[in-house]
Structure formats: structure tokens, C-alpha cells
Amino acid sequence: MMKISTFTALFVAGIFSMHVNAQTKANPKKPNIIFIVADDLGYGNLTSYNSTHRVATPNIDRIGKEGTKFTQFYSGSTVCAPSRCALMTGKTMGHAYIRGNSQEPLREQDTTLPQRLQLNGYATGMYGKWGLGEEGTTGSPERKGFDQFFGYLNQTHAHDYFTSYLYEVTNRQIKKVPADSALYAQDLIMDHALNFVQSNKDKPFFLFLPLTLTHAELRVPDSLMKPFLNADGTSKFEPETPFGGRNRYDAQAKPHAAFAAMVTRLDSDVGRVLDLIKKLGLDNNTYIFFTSDNGPHKEGGADPEYFDSNGPLRGIKRDLYEGGIRVPMLAKAPGKIPAGKTSNVPWAFWDVLPTIAQITNTAFSSNIDGLSFAPALEGKSQRQHEYLYWQFNEGGLKEALIKGEWKLIRFKSKGKPERLELYNLNKDIGEKDNIAASNEAKVAELKALIGKAKTPSESKKFDWSAEEE
Fold first, then answer.
1. What are the percentages of helix, strand and coil residues in the chain, rounded to 5?
2. Nearest-angstrom CA–CA distance, 460 and 100
3. Per-residue pLDDT tens for 292-304?
């Protein structure tokens, strides 16, 4: 039975004007949705985006070959929790409740995509890392729209691939469950995810797969490591710089080989999903999306430079340069999304909620920042955002705004003058040439939009107004 508090939140959200998709009325069978989010996978970590990448990703690339590859898709933020908040709630970092990495949960009034899909008759399952609310809080998965869940609730625990416990939601009730710490948690998570598909193959379902690969720590079972080692046990990805272990991460003698194994395992697990959907005869009525929550990391011995993880882009996780926020987006749905197409339409995590709502004929509130990009998925002309906006604060406030070909990045720390950088992304995708000094009018225009794009945070944890002093 739905909790009264959840019902109340949905009722409040429902007083806003509602949008529905008339396009699918001719097809009463609701499509299945599978949305896969890799953890800290860079723009250049897929061979479909970077043909010279050291590790092949044929299964993930298959989504783009059978569907469309988007080259200008953006994460919600440059780190985990706020990025997922944007995905779930349809709001940018100028308006979202969670704007940084913390244990802050979603609130009662923060309604999510799976909550809306539940009301439309969808079975909803999540397998992997949540990051938006602990057990017993207003942000716990069963209170935010998931019938079933198996995995990690917070980011810190999710670094441990060999853990003695995980969390599980069944019948909209959550509990901590024991896990065999000798088993790779990714395997347990994938088994539960595939069982969810099997169990719900005769009804419309939403499968959310926020997998922990390829985040640190860089640990995999010996069996996965073996293909990336020579017969004498040395790495095939020399030179290796052993990681001695630091902070929450265990030591890793061969971090290059371990990262290659993690990318390969991620790819093979995506292949398992694709193969099961075909086997069950669901391919023609299932949308499959693949993306990443932010740019590549440099933690636990990871080496994004060696793997060219950001491709032609500048920056990594925690940057608001393109390498920190521009991520892969591959989408397929036979007969609905054109096959073999590449699109440079710019869109972002906050657009996912209204897009999926439209293709599933699901009602959603107008009180969000996202637009439906269902037309873009179909290869049709698409309404565009006036601008895209991000903010982040670790070591000082960073803000970025993109309008057309122009991108302004603002850096501000308390008591220090601001620094502004301007780039023309059409001419300088690598953000190498800061042209702010020679384009004062454009800088002023975009800076004014930065002020327009945000409201003060409703959480003291994300109140960064002091940085403006």
C-alpha cells in the first residue's frame, strides 16, 4: 500500500499543470524503459566516442549502432549525488535541492521519475547505487518510487566492491541484507536486475541501472583481471604505477589492468541486458539508454590520461570544463529511434524525466527545468533550451553556462575576485583558448544569465552564498 506521505507529495506535485504525450495513444502497449548509468565513465572511455580507446566496448557501442549516438549530452553535475538528483527530479543545479556530494536525502516534496511511472502502472526497479537517501529518510528508494531495489544506498559504501551487506527493497519495504564478501557485488546486482526483467516481462517496467563500475576502488576478481595480464603476471597495460592504498581505497598493484577489466565487465553486463531483452521478445517495445553520471575520475590509482578517458575534452570529474560534465548518451528503440544516427542536439540529465514521461504517456509537473527531447530521439526537429547551467562547490564556487556555441565558466572563492573564462565550443571543444578578454559583451550577457539561472539553495549544506562575498 502506498505510504500517505508519498501520496501527499505526489498530490502536491500534481496541482501543477500536467503534460501528457498524445503521440503514443495509437499504441496502447506502454513501452519498457531501461536506463543505464555508469559511474565516472568518461566521454572517451567508449570506442563509439573514441576509436583509439585502449579497451573495446562492443556491447555498449551496439546501442548506438542500433540507435542514436548523442555527442552533446550533459550530466546533471560533475559529481555523483547532485547529478542523480537532476536525473530523478528534472531540475538543474540552479534549482535542485541536492547540489553537492553529501548524505542529504531527497525531501518529501521532491517527486521523482519512478514515482510518476508508478502512478502510470509501471513496475519500477533499481539496481546499483542510489546516493539520494539512506534507510529511514525521506529519500529512501522505496519512498521515491521504486518497487524493488538491490545495491548501495550511499556513495561511500559503493566504493567497496566486496562487501558484507547491501540493501534490498521488496514490496516497497527496505531492509539491510547480508552479502558474501567473497563475491563481486557487481555480479549480485546484475543477477537481481536480470531477474527483475524476467519477472516483469509481461507488464510495462522501468529498470534503472545506476551501476558502480567504473568508479574506484579499482578492484575486480582475479578471473576478470587475468585476460589483462601477461603469462608472467605482468600487466598488458604498462607502464603501471602501483597504487599503495589511500583514504577509503585499497591498494592496487596494476591499476591500468584493473580499470581495463572494469570497463570490459561493464560492457559485457550491458550485453547481458541487451541479449535478454532480445531473447524475451521485448526488443521492439523497449527503450534502452546508456550514459554516465559525470566525467572520468582520478581516484584509487585511476589514470584518465593514460586511457584518454575524456577524449578531445578538457577536464575530469569535479571540473565544469566539458570533460567533467559532457558524457556519452546512446539510445535505442527499434522502429522509434533511428538506427546508426549521430546527433549533436544539446540536452542534459534534467531533460530525461520529461522525455521518458512523453514516450510513456506519463503525467509530469511543469515545475521542472527539463524539456522533453522525445522528438530528438526520433530524429525530428527539437525545441532547444535557451541555456544550460551548472554550479558546484568544492574548493570554491564554480559555475558554467552554455548558450549555443558559447560557454562561460565562473570561478569564485570567498574574499577573492572572480575569474571568468569564455570558450567557443564550435571552434574549441577542448577549451584551450580563453577568449573572455576579447569578448566582453558576450561575457556580460552570459554572466547575467548565470544570475537568472539560479535560486538560493533550500539546504544549508548547499548554501554557497558566502562565496559571493
1. 30, 20, 50
2. 11
3. 999 999 999 999 9
